[in-house]
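Our consortium's second objective concerns turning raw sequence data into structural hypotheses that experimental partners can test. To show how far this objective has progressed, the report includes one record in full. It was chosen at random from the queue rather than selected for favorable results. The single chain below, 230 residues long, was entered without modification.
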Amino acid sequence: MSTQQVLVLGIGNLLWADEGFGVRCIETLHQHYTFPENVTLMDGGTQGIYLVQHVQAADILIVFDAIDYGLEGGSLKQIHDAEVPTFMGAKKMSLHQTGFQEVLAMAQLLDAYPEKILLVGVQPVELEDYGGSLRPAVKAQIQPAIAIALNYLANLGIHASKRIEPLPEHERLTPSQIALAQYEAGRPSAEVACRLGDERVLADPTLQFDPKPSLIEQPLSVNVDSRRPN
């Protein structure tokens, strides 16, 4: 049995449609599989630099995420080892990618870097949909992405076991309120909850925003070029 420490990490933001792919992958993986004690499954969300201690402790790192590869929406792609930081930062879609690129750089700087890294990324279809769920083409890649990760681990001698029954809600990584089914079922319609900006406000020509008044009647000015005479 392998004694290497394995971290399987899902990162992303559930609130912005396909940005939540990584978290949904780790959520599904945890719900349906068990692993040896040396394997940790983690919902990294948008924690960014706060994940560095967990990355440093890992010998093998697997990351699920939505990545802009410039491919057709829903395309799944695997990136390995030294190429991973390049793809994490090549075309950033959100702040969490910047943060995770920094995590990898910091781990390397501190000489505590995983021996092996696998990035399983999907090309997003839609990001600009606040409160939206995964688009069908992206959601369809959750199981294939999980299969890639399981096969990768199996080739390293690390095997998962399929649960006879899915994990009960109270034991899952994701709170039940934002679990995939509940999240999709509970979302209001576009007529009730605007997806981008509220058109009732943005399209109203009579609406004016008053500038915020200054709290200081006579703001202090400083001449930074002045010099005290000798």
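The partners drew two points from this record. The two ends are 76 Å apart (CA to CA). The chain has a mean pLDDT of 80. Both points have been shared with the crystallography group to help prioritize constructs.
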